[in-house]
Prior knowledge:
This protein is α+β, with helices and mostly antiparallel strands. 47% of the residues lie in helices and 17% in strands. The protein folds into three domains: 4-110, Orthogonal Bundle (Arc Repressor Mutant, subunit A); 132-141 and 306-404, Serine Threonine Protein Phosphatase 5, Tetratricopeptide repeat; 162-301, ABC-type transport auxiliary lipoprotein component (Rossmann fold, 3-Layer(aba) Sandwich). It has helices spanning 36-47, 55-62, 70-84, 128-148, 180-194, 207-210, 220-227, 271-285, 292-301, 306-322, 327-343, 348-364, 370-387, 392-404; strands at residues 9-13, 16-19, 24-27, 30-31, 52-54, 93-96, 100-103, 108-111, 163-167, 171-172, 202-204, 231-240, 243-252, 257-267.
Amino acid sequence: MGLKGSQNIVYRFGEFALDPRSRVLRRAGQRVPLTPKAVDVLSILVERAEQVVTREELIDAVWPDSYVEESNLTQTVFMLRKALGRDSGEPYIATVQGRGYRFVAEVRLVPEEAAPPPAPSPGRHRYLWTAAGAVAAVSAVMAALLITFRPDAPSEAPRAERLMLAVLPFENLTGDAGQEYFSDGLTEEMISQIGKLDSRYLGVIARTSVMRYKGKQIPLDRVGADLGVQYLLEGSVRRESSKVRVTAQLIRVDDQTHLWSHDYDREVRNLLALERDIAHDIAEEIQLSLDESAVAVEASRAGMTPAQYEAHDAYLKGRFFWNKRTIEGFEEAIKHFSLAIEADPHNARAHAGLADCYALFPLYNALLPQEPYVAKARAEALRALELDERLAAAHTSLALILENHDWD
Length: 408
């Protein structure tokens, strides 16, 4: 479905003016802070005012190149309703049960107008956390640059084409659905580990794009074409008591050749070492080398104490439930992230996980007051940064708060 933004048209409804071409919504001349994806969703609904637009149509149009769960659309619509408001009567965006959404206001099309001057800047006190987040983000970028471009590293000519790899969801072969968190967690951990390979030569597809293939029998050449990758890593997990066996194989997509296949038998308390071993093997096969600083960081964490293993296991469960993006899922995730912190108070990733839960929970449950949850989310994100300022998840957690609640 195409947007009319290319025709220099502005949609007007109530006090609002929507310019889909520049992705700007204004109310009484003042810009309404919305993410670009939120504006895209609104543009489609407004363009088809009084018509039912299905959830599938919206997801396909707004997120054409990504795997997005329906809950992402639900959250976006929630944010739109909050931004649009309506003191009386039904909201601008009505839910059509079991189908999708319908924009119910009268819409007028007018020629594009010159944009009004920007609104005066709000008081400094509203942006203290925004400034802190900006400093944190810049620090993260600088740290990443220092890691990637070490002064003492010999310069290398870039390859003509960067290789791309996807880690397919690891299959749970335990026969216990309660272990799905473990196989999903291992998939996410492997994406993170392989992401530490030299990014100049290898790119790794994100989790949200690969999880759509979980439990599906799709030809590997089609998966490779869909994701635009030359290599696939697929595997399975068997876990019994304190032992785990991971089978992993690296596949070249063009001829579906198995470059290698290995079984890894480990004690579960050495899970991080197991993940590092697999990443090393992949590096050797595609003639890459791990970043030295990343190796040092992981090596220092490889041998977990019983308390650290307990915390890591609880963390994986927390992420499993958080990724469900439901009210019940957030409740379970908060419980497991809290257990992880109880077992290991210095687990920065568990604090970041709690921050993510508190930041999204009130967006999915309109009955909850937002302010207390946002305060908890901010405190947990800052605690995660205090424990590990190099942790990307902690910076992402703070960014989530700045975007969804500070409207930055």
